[in-house]
Design brief:
With 125 residues, the chain is mainly α. It has helices spanning 3-11, 37-45, 52-69, 72-124.
């Protein structure tokens, strides 16, 4: 008796030489890859400082195209880039908007004070 046959006999496996058949079913799971296209469109329309929103929109469209073709890895790579660009566009857009509002307020106050001094100087003469 060979060593393998002895081990099979000890383990109590069936002595038939027919191999058990197995069926393998490949089920493709529908992985959801967010393409961030709505966020990119929002950044393109409203917060498009330095064109980051437009670039993010382009990467979102590329991600959606890759997803439609079935290239999940490529879609995830483009989506990740679009997400980073959207975050950058949002932060830069918020900071630039706040800076513009502050510049407008302080500029208006400065112009008001300058005009007030001019009026006061003209009243002295």
């Amino acid at each position: 008796m060979h060593k393998e046959e002895h081990e099979v006999a000890v383990l109590g496996a069936p002595h038939s030489t027919i191999l058990p058949r197995s069926t393998m079913i490949n089920i493709q799971s529908e992985t959801s890859v967010p393409d961030h296209i709505v966020w990119s469109l929002f950044n393109t329309i409203f917060l498009n400082w330095c064109c980051l929103g437009f670039i993010a929109f382009a990467y979102s469209v590329k991600s959606r195209d890759r997803k439609m073709v079935g290239d999940v890895t490529g879609a995830q790579a483009y989506a990740s880039t679009a997400k980073c660009l959207n975050i950058s566009a949002l932060i830069v857009g918020i900071l630039m908007t706040i800076g513009f509002i502050l510049l407008l307020v302080f500029g208006s106050v400065a112009i008001y004070h300058i005009m007030l001094q001019i009026v006061q100087e003209k009243q002295r003469y």
